[in-house]
Amino acid sequence: MTLGVALPSFDRVPLADLDAALAGLPAAAGVAQLLGPEDRNLLIGRPANLRRWTASHLGRGKPPAKGRRPPTDLSPVAAAVAWAATTSPFQQRLAYERLMARHVPLSARRDLPAPAFLHLDPAERFPRISVRRVEQGADGLFGPFRDRRRAEQARDRLHREFPLRPCDYVFEPDPALPLGLGCLFAQVRSCSAPCLGRVAEADYRALAARVAGRLARPGDRGDAGLASFVAAAGGRGIVVATTASHVELYPVRAGRVLDGAAVVAPRGEWEAAAARLRWEDDQEEDPAGTTADWPWLSAWLHSPAGRNSWVALEEPADDAALRAALEPLLGFFK
């Protein structure tokens, strides 16, 4: 039997009786928030032990190691603690990010550098690979990459394999064009030089389409050196989280985690759970940015816990294709 899974609900515990409040907190992983007067946010964390984390920030923690500064004692201003236990590292990160987005704008999150993407649109007349941010629109973007430098490294690897033009010039093909004749890339033939008419426009766009296919399909990359989670930024994927007894599946569309569509099931019933996944976006647009997930989702995917939990889906993704994509991660649970 498969069951829907949503974000965990938060319990609010007053701190008037600090000892009783701490005793009521579980020694489990989760998300916690210390609240001041009028429920003002003081601190948000995603600890491995809710009770220990709360105690450490309220002056009840263990003495710090020699030479280390203890956490600031917030007990004089803290009025309550809101907490929620989580079942998996990804659910913990998701609950933490949703809570953080309500209190801290993304522009103030120094722990979340903006990820970079490769842009390649085979429909352009003379496509080229460039590095962009997702804020410029997801069409033709592939990623995410941790930062611009790593995206540029991936672009350079692709240029060594495929002779796409590296320049950003606008031109009309002409074998006698001075621009092309003076181009080093054209001279050493690392570029197919459409500016000089060395390749037909249709053939050049077909080459760009091959590169876009390489970026969009993780299974067809060979030794391209691209991470398995690099795919079309506007496409679909699934984050797979496993617990001792259950499998959690979180659908992602265009870099947005669809909280309400996630499902959880016993390990041996993951195929039935996958069949229940849906991709309708029933979340309302949030001007506060609580669903702008690419920055933290990229950080998760690049972490040791995240890089092996992502399944990119190719279109069309029917039930059979979905099961085939999940089989490498979950097949041994049958």
Written overview of the protein:
The model is unreliable at 286-291 (pLDDT under 50). The protein is 28% helix and 19% strand. It has 3 domains: 7-86; 116-220, no CATH class; 231-333, no CATH class. The protein has helices at 18-23, 50-56, 89-103, 148-161, 178-181, 184-187, 201-216, 270-275, 294-301, 319-330; strands spanning 3-4, 11-14, 30-35, 41-45, 80-85, 116-119, 130-132, 141-145, 231-232, 236-242, 246-253, 256-257, 263-266, 310-313. It contains 10 helices and 14 strands. The strands form 3 sheets. Strands 1, 10, 11, 12, 13 and 14 form a 6-stranded antiparallel beta sheet that branches. Strands 2-5-3-4 form a 4-stranded antiparallel beta sheet, with helices on both faces. A 4-stranded antiparallel beta sheet has the order 7-6-8-9, with helices on one face. With 334 residues, the chain is of the alpha+beta class.
Main sheet: strands, sense, barrel: 6 strands, antiparallel
User: What does the overall shape look like?
Assistant: elongated
Strand content: 15-25%
Structural class, by secondary structure, is alpha+beta
Question: What is the chain-wise order of helices and strands?
Answer: EEHEEHEHEEEHHHHEEEEEHHEH
Number of domains: 3
Give average pLDDT, whole number: 88
The low-pLDDT segments are 286-291
Radius of gyration: 25 Å
Number of helices, where a helix is a run of at least 4 consecutive DSSP H or I residues: 10
Helix content: 25-40%
Query: What's the number of extended β-strand segments?
Result: 14
Cα end-to-end separation: 14 Å
